[in-house]
C-alpha cells in the first residue's frame, strides 16, 4: 500500500524536513510540492540536500494543486494554513505544521497573532499526558485534521506534563529558558535572527511574555494539570543551525520527592519510543538528538534554590515539527507509529 502525500510550503525549513522524512517512509509516495515566492523553481535549487526530489518543480500553493492526495502537510507561515485548509475536502488528512489550529481560546489567538481565530484541531503530541490519566495519542486515531505543536512548546510540555499531572510542581510559577537553533526562527526570519548574525554570539528574542508559543504552553499545562498556570518564557537564539535545549525551573508541590517524580516519569515515558528519561546526573544534549525524532528529558532538584529543574533536548525540525507531523499521520492512518522515523541521531 502506498499513500500519496503533498507538501505545501516545501521550500521552507519545515517543508524540507518533511520531504526528508517522506523519502525515508516506506509507505509514502510524494505527489505535488508547492511554494509561494519560490514557485517555478526546482527543489534541487532550494533544498539541495534532497537529491531524490531534485528535479521536482515547486508549484503554486493552491487548493487545486493539493487536491487528489490522501495526505496534505501544510508547512506554511502562521495565518495562511486556515484559508488553504478550508478549501480541502473533509475526507483528506490535513496536517498543519503552523499555529493556525493549535489554540482553543480565540482571545488568546487574537492577543498573540492579531487576527481572527480559525478554530481548533486535534493536537499532534502523542506522548503528552493529560489530567484524566490518558495521553493525546488516543485522540489522534482516525482524525482527518491535526495541528502539530510549536517546537518550543513540545520541549517544555514533554519536560513538565507528567509532573503537572501528578501535582508534583506548582504550575502557577514556572520559569523557562530555551536555547534555540537558528532554523527555529524560520527561513523568512528577520535579518537579526539569521545564522550569519549570531555566529559567536547569543541573544534573546520575543522577550517579556511576547513569544507566541506562551498561550500554547499554558494551554498544555491546563490540559495536563487541570489548573491555570503561569510561565515566564525566554527563548535565546544560539549559534547552532537546529536543536532546542529547554530548562524549566518549578517550585515543588507538597507531594514532591525525587524518588516519586522519577517513578512518575518512568511510568509516563518508559514505554515511549521517542521520549527517553535520562539517568540521574545525565544532562540532555541537542547533539544527541540531532536528526532524530527523540526527546531526551532529565530532572534534577536544586536544594539551595528550592526548585525542581526540568530539562529537555529535541531537534526542532524533527520532534519539534516534521517528525511530529509524520508520527501523528501514522497514528491517524492506523500505521505503526514509528514508521519512517528514527531514534538514531547524526553527528553534529
List keywords for this structure.
348 residues, alpha/beta, Rossmann fold, 7-stranded mixed sheet, 6-stranded parallel sheet, 13 strands, 11 helices, Dihydrodipicolinate Reductase, domain 2
In short:
With 348 residues, the protein is of the alpha/beta class.
What do you see in this structure?
The protein has 348 residues and is of the alpha/beta class. 27% of the residues lie in helices and 22% in strands. The protein contains eleven helices and 13 strands. The strands form two sheets. A seven-stranded mixed β-sheet has the order 8-9-7-10-13-12-11. Strand 2 (28-35), helix 2 and strand 3 form a beta-alpha-beta unit. Helix 1 packs across helix 11 (318-332). The chain starts with a strand and ends in a 16-residue tail after the last helix. The model has no long low-confidence stretch (mean pLDDT 92).
Q: Name the helix and strand elements from N-terminus to C-terminus, one letter apiece.
A: EHEHEHEHEHEHEHEHEEHEHEEH
Helical residues, percent: 25-40%
What is the CATH homology-level superfamily of the largest domain? Dihydrodipicolinate Reductase, domain 2
Tally the beta strands: 13
How would you write the strand order of the largest sheet? Answer: 8-9-7-10-13-12-11
Bulk shape: globular
Topology, please?
Elements: E1 3-8, H1 13-24, E2 28-35, H2 43-46, E3 59-60, H3 63-66, E4 71-74, H4 81-85, E5 93-96, H5 106-113, E6 145-147, H6 151-165, E7 169-180, H7 195-198, E8 203-204, H8 214-225, E9 231-237, E10 244-252, H9 258-269, E11 275-277, H10 286-289, E12 295-302, E13 307-314, H11 318-332
Parallel strand pairs: 1-2, 1-4, 2-3, 4-5, 5-6, 7-9, 11-12
Antiparallel strand pairs: 7-10, 8-9, 10-13, 12-13
Helix pairs in contact: 1-11, 6-8
